[in-house]
Amino acid sequence: MGTENKILEEENRFKVKNSIQSYLGAIFLMAITAIGPGFLMQTTVFTQKTGASFGFVILASVVIDIAVQINVWRIIIASGKRGQEIGNMVFPGLGYFISILIVMGGLCFNIGNIAGAALGLNVLFGLDITIAAVISGCIALSIFCFKRVGEIMDKFVSTFGIVRILLALFVAVAALPPVREAAVKTVMPDQIDIMALVTLVGGSVGGYITFSGGHRLLDSGISGIKHVAQATRSAISGILITGVMRIILFLGALGVITHGYFIDPANPAASVFQAAAGDIGYKLFGIVIWSAGTTSVIGCAYTSVSFLKSFSPKIDEYYSKIIIGFIIFSTLVFVIVGQPVRVLVIVGTINGFILPLALASILVGAYNKKIVGEYRHPIWMTVAGACVAVLMGWMSIHTVITQFLQ
Q1: DSSP state of 316
Q2: Which residues does UniProt call coiled coil (predicted)?
Q3: Helix axes 149-174, 268-306, angle to 10 degrees
Q4: How many CB atoms lie within 10 A of CB 179?
Q5: CA distances (Å), 218 to each of 3, 75, 77, 99, 121, in order?
Q6: Cβ(290)–Cβ(283) below 8 Å
Q7: What domains lie within the chain, and their CATH numbers?
Q8: At what angle do helices 94-125 and 268-306 cross, to 10 degrees?
Q9: Which pLDDT band holds residue 45 (cuts at 50, 70, 90)?
Q10: Is 377 helix (H, G, I), strand (E, B) or coil?
Q11: Cβ 50 vs Cβ 196: under 8 Å
Q12: Checking phi first, is residue 330 left (phi over 0); if not, alpha (psi -120 to 50) or beta?
């Protein structure tokens, strides 16, 4: 009996350890994928445009992001089904349509991620952008050449995510930002930039990012009503990590702008790091944007391809190979097209359009017993999610009309 008890205890410890690693992996995959190169560029561009009032946009985006992710994670885990599978059960073909939009949006994002990684190696070693893009693409796809893909991916993403946050924090402190002014304008802004809000939300929980954490948990074998509460806490944790990084970058950019330093429109985020900490800051920017680009390439490819699984069982069989092909294609497109900074700012807005439709399908699915079984989704979460879907739909349309009229 003693031996049997020890074996059971070891098995339970192993299960608990794997469960914790799976949740941490999902948290960091969602959070760190959201903190990509576009994240760096967008924060700097919009801080320069709106000043301390950009703090309000960050606060609003965090609230919206939490409303989105707690709905999506809970319903995916309770049902044990991927986002596209829920969509198809809500309305035949809807899941396939959303999958196509997300894969296309993910491809656009991944081109931007490759661009960011290439900029990072260019800053660090002076490499030609094309060569730097190829090297970064090869490093990212090498993760998927191993048998224990999930474990290696989780460790790579979380390690570089922590490094990135610490380096950005150092630069933010060195920039001596007006913290008091930022705090006041966060709750009482002089202006509210709708395009900035759409872009931030689209870049942090839009498109494939909406489903990255939930799909990662399913791949780890975590599903069912008993896991819903932990999934909720994990979703909130991921958004808070994203929010902390956004605030750090915002304060760094605000400090630099307040002190009158020049922001180079060709590479605005690099200007912030360099102005705050000189040549060391510029090199730190290279590390931050390379790690941001590479980890986002991994997370984007992994989640985007997960949406293709519903099209054919063969997708699951050749999952890693298709992801590698996705990364190679993204790299080649960037090498041919170029225009990194413009791509990085635009892709967040594109993903803002996908969010309302994807979120609406998930919310409808929450009340279909064929999808969620005996799980009962809280009404207040549904109301919050529906408000976000309507708000994001309206703001996305408003942004396009405004830009078109200009």
Answers
A1: H
A2: none
A3: 160
A4: 13
A5: 33, 12, 7, 17, 34
A6: no
A7: 2-405 (1.20.1740.10)
A8: 140
A9: confident
A10: coil
A11: yes
A12: alpha
Mean pLDDT of the chain: 86
* CA dihedral of 250, 287, 126, 302, whole degrees rounded to 10: -100
312 backbone dihedrals φ, ψ, rounded to 5°:
-165, 140
Rounded-to-integer distance, Cα 203 and Cα 45, Å: 14
Query: Tokens 């044990």 label which residue?
Result: 80
For every residue of 16-40, DSSP letters joined together read: HHHHHHHHHHHHHHHHHHHSSHHHH
Reported as a pLDDT band with limits 50, 70 and 90, residue 23 is confident
Judge residue 261's burial from the number of C-beta atoms within 10 Å of its C-beta, 0-12 exposed, 13-18 middle, 19 or more buried. middle
Split at pLDDT 50, 70, 90, the class of 403 is: low
Tell me the per-residue pLDDT of 326-336, one tens digit each, with 9 for 90 and over.
999 989 988 88
Quote the CA–CA distance of 30 and 15 in Å, as a whole number. 22
Token code pair at residue 176? 């001596």
Tokens 């960050």 found at: 58
3-class SS at 146? coil
Helix (H), strand (E), coil (C) string for 126-148? CCCHHHHHHHHHHHHHHHHHCCC
Phi then psi dihedrals of residue 259, to 5 deg: -85, 5
Confidence of residue 340 (pLDDT cuts 50, 70, 90): low
Secondary structure class of 118 (helix, strand, coil): helix
* Contact by Cβ (8 Å): 127, 286: no
Per-residue pLDDT averaged across 143-157, rounded? 85
The tokens for 46 are 């919009």
Question: pLDDT tens digit string along 229-249?
Answer: 999 999 999 999 999 998 999
d(CA 155, CA 153): 6
User: Both ends of the chain: CA-CA distance in Å?
Assistant: 77
What count of residues does the chain have? 406
